[in-house]
Every structure is written in C-alpha cells, then in structure tokens.
Amino acid sequence: MIKEIRMPNAGQTTDTAVICQWKVKIGDNVKRGDILLEAETDKAVLPVESFATGIVIDILAGEGDTVEGGDIVCVIGDAKDQDAYTKSNNTEAVPPEQQEVMDSSEPDGDFIPIMKTHPEAPTVEVARGQYPAMPNSKRMAKELGVDLQMITPSNGAYITRHDVISYTDSHVGPANDYEVMPMSRMRKAIARRMVESVSTVPTFQVTVSVDMLQAINLKKQMEELKNVKISYNDIIIKALSVVAKEYSLINARYEQEELRMYSHTNIGLAVAIDEGLVVPVIEHADMLSLFEIAKASRALIEKARKGTLTTDEMGCGSISISNLGMFGVDHFTAIVNPPESAILAVGGIVTKPVWEGDGWKPVEMMKITGSFDHRIIDGAYAARLLDALRTLIEHPLMMFV
C-alpha cells in the first residue's frame, strides 16, 4: 500500500522548512526509522525519518525547496504499488525541481494518485522576460538580487535554480564592489526576531561587577577533586536557579499579551555556530545539581554545534545567558529574546586594582549586564536580582545550603 511521507511540523514558531539534502533516491529500499532527508528550519537542521518500509516510489520536493508542515514530500510502497503509481500518473519520473504537485483524485484501489505536471517546451520562441520560473529559482533570484527577466532558461521552457546560478556566476565578477550573500533560514530568523525584540520589547539594562575569586576556586576544586569539567556559565546558571526562588519573575514570559509565570526555571544558553546563533535551554535548572547542569549544558552545546538540536530543546526558556568573555570582551549588552523576561550578557574575567585596607590589591572581576523586559521586570527589582546573583557567585557555597 502506498505510504505518503509528510513533512512533520517542527514546532509552534516554525511552520516551514527548506529541504537541505535527500538521503535516498527513487528506487531505494528503506525501512522504518531510516533517515530520508534533512530539512532546515529557522532554528536547526532536522532529520526526517521514514515511518514505513518499502521502495521509494517518488520524491515530490527537491533540495532547496521550501515545504510546509503536512506537505507530502515522498511516496513509499512496494513493487506492485510502483507500477500502479506510474500508470496512474501517466508520466515518467522527472527531477524534483521539475515536479509540481497539482491535484489529488478520489481513491482508486489502495492509494490516491498524485498528479504531476511540468512545463513543455514552447512551440514558438518566447520573448526574454516571459519565461516561467520554478518556485525555488524565484526564491534564489530574490535572495541574490537577480532580475528573472534577464535570464533565458537553458531548457528553453522555464527557469531553474541552475539557470539563476549560471547567470549570477557570469554577471557577478571583479567589476562589482560586493557580492550578495544568500541569507540562510537561521540568519533570516535571527534578523526577524531581533527586529521584533527592539521594536516591541521595552528594554533597560543593569550592570554589576562580580569578584570571581571564589567562583574560580570552586571551578578548580570541582575539576581537580571531582574530575568534572565545570564552566563559569554552569556556575551562573546554578546561581540563577537559586536566585529564582526569591525573584520568581526570572521564570516569567510575556506571551500573547499575558504575563505567564512558569513553575520551574528554564535557562537558555546562547551558542555561536557557523550559521548564526542558537539558544538551547536547560529545563528545570532549579531541580538540578551543579554537576547535572554542567552535563546538560555540555550535551546541548555539542548538539548545537552538530546541528542536531530538536525544537523541544529550544524556545522554552524564560531567561538566557550570552557569554562573550572567551573572546576577550569585557562588557556588552544583549538583546532580549522574546518572549523571555531577560538576558544576561557575561563579559570576561579581568584583573582590576581594588583598594582594600592600606593599599591596592589585584582582584579578578567580571561584569554581568542584564537586559530586562520592562513589561515584566522593573528597575529596582532588576537591581536587587542582580545584587543577589552577585552575592551567590562571590560566595558560591551559599548555593548549596
């Protein structure tokens, strides 16, 4: 029996995806659980598995195509289905970029045939600028700033992605001062959400300087005595989870014009990758030990860099941490990731002279700047919150009592 493989819905904030790579081709045998393709959402590259065993009878979307959740992308069946499917469609298999899903008829036997058509070459010459273009070639041309009216298709009938690429290669050269860099879905999503943040979220910043001596000692002792890798982010996450017991607005999100208080502390950790930025979330941090936080953060960072984060591992935080200290940055401000209540921008540890008693002494200092959604958190509340956070980091044993 014919099995239609549909694009799964990737999450509340993602209803479309771009097909990156097919792992199978027409005629391949697959079994349940095999990876059929990889698709890029605005947050991650996700594998799509087969729920059926059989032969790949047809592929209905090509690499680079945008599909929505629920769209049929692949058809799987057995040898008998393959013959019936071909007859019902009355066409030979054509490359995915030439396919267009047109209609579905009433059930005939065991399956619903999927009709496909593709433009035939014109019988008379078509004037430049009047050629139809495939949807993926239109998207690419828009991203590259190419005028489709300037392109004559190589097949004489309709413009493909390869035509756009060929035209770009031949017309963008040394004479130009720049080249257009196509924006990935992730980069577009980052741009959209950052514009949304600065346009809709009334934000203010508060900065504190933290004496890191005890936190440095704690990190060393954990690594030497327990042989466990601990980062300063882990210590800050642990401290935040403790502070949240008194300053519960850390757990709030402003969603659909409602201030929603969540019962647990879910903390996002900004991770830089080649394609942009992702924010995996350590859920229920208030229920985890420092060791468990360290283990969870390492696992999420590794998945982020491999591009294997799931939508369930992102997008559910109420406050995030962005740390640029490892790049030599002393101080910066970060943009709130809506609908979260706040984000902490963590700088590097810098030796500063501090007057104590009769003289100056070197102190390892770190600046933390909180950006807060003023619809949720007020200035005095934010100041007390950061002061409490500073106290815990400067006296980390208080986190464990």
Descriptive account of the structure:
With 401 residues, this protein is of the alpha+beta class. The protein has three domains: 3-116, OB fold (Dihydrolipoamide Acetyltransferase, E2P) (Beta Barrel), CATH 2.40.50; 125-182, no CATH class; 186-400, Chloramphenicol Acetyltransferase. 26% of the residues lie in helices and 27% in strands. The strands form six sheets. A six-stranded mixed sheet has the order 11-20-19-18-14-17. β4 (35-40) and β5 form a beta hairpin. α2 packs parallel to α3 (161-171), α6 crosses α7 and α6 packs across α8. It is elongated and about 90 Å long. The model is unreliable at 90-125 (pLDDT under 50).
Short description:
With 401 residues, the chain is α+β, with helices and mostly antiparallel strands. 26% of the residues lie in helices and 27% in strands.
